[in-house]
Write a structure and sequence with these properties.
Elements (H helix, E strand, L loop, with lengths): L1 H10 L6 H8 L3 H7 L3 H19 L9 H18 L1 H13 L5 H19 L1
Helix pairs in contact: 1-6, 2-3, 4-6, 4-7
Length: about 120
């Protein structure tokens, strides 16, 4: 996933090819396909991991007195991160939007990770 994120951050969505990612980490492309049937699956899985890491990296439920203030802090943090890496942001967004029904489980997991982060923030 790190390799896919690196490729996406430097070249955008169209630069993310399964063969490129596999070569970058030194595995056979077939091995990568065994776990991720398409690049949308790979990028959505990376998106899930990034939201889970964000949730674990800080206590978004503290530090501000109201749920709205906490949500504002999280939103500002996300906005800053997304603005720093526009190609990566575009890649992750496109993967999430373009994923087909084969990626339904990954999309559900991504939505759950985002919902969990938001719920903790406004709790």
């Amino acid at each position: 996933m790190d390799a896919a994120l690196t490729v996406a951050a430097t070249g955008g969505y169209d630069a993310v090819h399964m063969r490129t990612v596999a070569e970058r980490v030194g595995i056979a492309v077939g091995t990568l396909y065994r776990y991720f049937p398409a690049k949308t699956h790979l990028l959505v899985a990376a998106l899930i991991r990034e939201f889970q890491r964000l949730d674990a990296s800080g206590d978004w439920a503290t530090g501000a007195s109201t749920p709205q203030q906490r949500l504002d802090r999280l939103t500002e943090h996300l906005h800053d991160r997304w603005q720093r890496d526009p190609l990566l942001t575009d890649s992750m967004t496109r993967a999430f939007v373009m994923a087909d029904t084969r990626a339904a489980a990954e999309l559900d997991r991504a939505a759950a990770a985002i919902e969990t982060l938001l719920a903790r923030t406004v709790a």
